[in-house]
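Run log // design_07
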């Protein structure tokens, strides 16, 4: 899997890629890998196009692996539909064991689902741990997809409302304020079960042998501060490799983007590998592009890393990318 520098960029721990994720990562890097709990990207026009262009390299589940996961997810939704209107008892049931976070709650829900099913009809994978991780990621992916749809709808409503008020008031100052107001994210997936997302994602990648490092370890990429903060707060050994708050980047319509990204990749790899004084080799292209971003790279070891990999001598490099 990891054979060239470009292949070393691995988006995590989300399996749903938002438009913001795409814009952010591809402003810095020419391509990245990701894990998807789907059979393909055909239902998402943008992701499908990006995949065909080689900018996003997805790792899909095989039909044999995906089938039981989708079946079980549908059973959970059916179970929820059956209990719709009985939220009080559901809250009591999940008070001590949040949904999909332990073996006990999954087993309890499974037992209820199976009451009306023929013995042996339910086909779970032999690897229960992988099945549990993939099921969690599938549910998280559906949640994130719905969240992004809601965010986009809210932003559209906000923009329409602002334009209407601006038109009614006829104030140029008000219009200028709207133009320079950056839309805020109404919700943030990273704050929802951060630890569980990370453990499930790494567990799945390991079980499916997608983290083979014979050709060198990957650089784990995230656009979510909460994910990066999790490692900062839960790892014992931290080496700050790169930390730039304000760096010029180039959008996908800029003719200088490819050249700048080539230079930036060399700069980034040099910083990670510790080759010389990279601080004086930061690429810069003089043009009219105004987009700027942030990037931070750290090596993490100990603590949470030991839990993730179940070894004591492991370390990983994590990169946080944001647009200003």
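design_07 sequence
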């Amino acid at each position: 899997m990891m054979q060239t520098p470009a292949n070393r960029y691995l988006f995590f721990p989300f399996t749903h890629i938002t438009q913001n994720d795409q814009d952010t990562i591809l402003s810095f890097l020419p391509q990245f890998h990701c894990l998807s709990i789907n059979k393909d990207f055909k239902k998402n026009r943008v992701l499908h196009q990006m995949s065909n262009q080689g900018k996003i390299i997805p790792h899909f589940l095989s039909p044999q692996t995906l089938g039981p996961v989708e079946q079980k997810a549908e059973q959970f939704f059916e179970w929820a539909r059956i209990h719709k209107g009985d939220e009080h008892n559901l809250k009591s049931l999940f008070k001590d064991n949040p949904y999909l976070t332990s073996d006990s709650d999954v087993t309890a829900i499974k037992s209820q689902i199976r009451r009306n099913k023929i013995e042996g009809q339910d086909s779970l994978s032999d690897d229960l741990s992988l099945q549990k991780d993939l099921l969690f990621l599938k549910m998280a992916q559906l949640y994130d997809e719905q969240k992004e749809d809601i965010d986009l709808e809210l932003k559209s409503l906000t923009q329409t409302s602002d334009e209407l008020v601006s038109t009614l008031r006829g104030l140029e100052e008000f219009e200028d304020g709207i133009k320079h107001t950056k839309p805020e994210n109404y919700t943030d997936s990273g704050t929802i079960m951060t630890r569980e997302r990370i453990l499930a994602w790494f567990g799945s990648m390991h079980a499916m042998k997608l983290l083979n490092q014979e050709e060198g370890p990957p650089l784990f990429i995230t656009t979510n501060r909460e994910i990066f903060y999790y490692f900062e707060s839960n790892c014992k050994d931290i080496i700050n490799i790169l930390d730039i708050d304000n760096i010029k980047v180039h959008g996908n319509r800029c003719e200088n983007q490819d050249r700048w990204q080539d230079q930036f990749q060399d700069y980034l790899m040099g910083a990670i590998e510790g080759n010389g004084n990279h601080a004086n080799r930061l690429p810069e292209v003089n043009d009219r592009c105004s987009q700027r971003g942030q990037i931070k790279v750290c090596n993490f070891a100990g603590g949470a890393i030991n839990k993730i990999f179940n070894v004591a001598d492991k370390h990983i490099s994590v990169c946080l990318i944001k647009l200003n």
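The first helix runs from residue 19 to 28.
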